[in-house]
Known about the structure:
The protein has helices at 17-26, 45-48, 69-79, 93-116, 132-144, 156-170, 178-188, 191-208, and strands at 6-10, 31-34, 58-61, 64-67. By secondary structure, it is an alpha+beta fold. It has two domains: 6-84 and 192-203, Glutaredoxin (3-Layer(aba) Sandwich), CATH 3.40.30.10; 93-190, Glutathione S-transferase Yfyf (Class Pi), Chain A, domain 2. A four-stranded mixed β-sheet has the order 2-1-3-4, covered by helices on one side. β1, α1 and β2 form a beta-alpha-beta unit. The radius of gyration is 17 Å and the shape is globular. The N and C termini lie far apart (37 Å). The mean pLDDT is 96.
Amino acid sequence: MSAQKLVHYHAPNTRSATIRWLFEELGVPHELKVLNMKKGEHKSPEFLAINPMGKVPTIVHGDTPVTEAAAIALYLADLFPEAGLAPKVGDPARGTYLRWIVFNQAAVEPACMDLALKRDPGPAASLGYGSYDATIEALAGALAKGPYILGDRFSAADVVVGSGVNWLLKFKLLPERPEFTSYAERMRSRPAFIRAVGKDAELAKSLES
């Protein structure tokens, strides 16, 4: 376990929920710094000095900031190998693990956001994700093998992809296919997921008062 200070900059009801769930899975000590988005705390000079995008999730490990949910998940799972959430370098499963964490951020989210915002994405050959339909079929294929991205082994890839699938189903940006709905149900049943959601619900209420 790392001896350096670990800080998670967080706001409820944001993409940072992915990392809050991951911390619950890891069970490691860290400091939670809550940013009140309604008050613009994520755009304060102090936070912008850490993450110029003014976005959460952001972590700081020692003096090193790490941003972007996928990068943070990869970083933390490697930082705490005793949790067993990342295949080691040299393990053939690591390629699959890396592939789908990155695919979620590089293909699934952009494809679904273009759909949600009714944007013309342009020619498939010009897009990293190709097309929405191709992206969804690829994701369904990865999840159909189940019960997890790595078969019988739960990993940080499931935290990243599972968070995305849950969110996208909620907003009807993924079709109600069994590959997605059954996977989402498995993720929501995890004790760490339940704890993270409960803590964020309480936090959201406290920020409204």
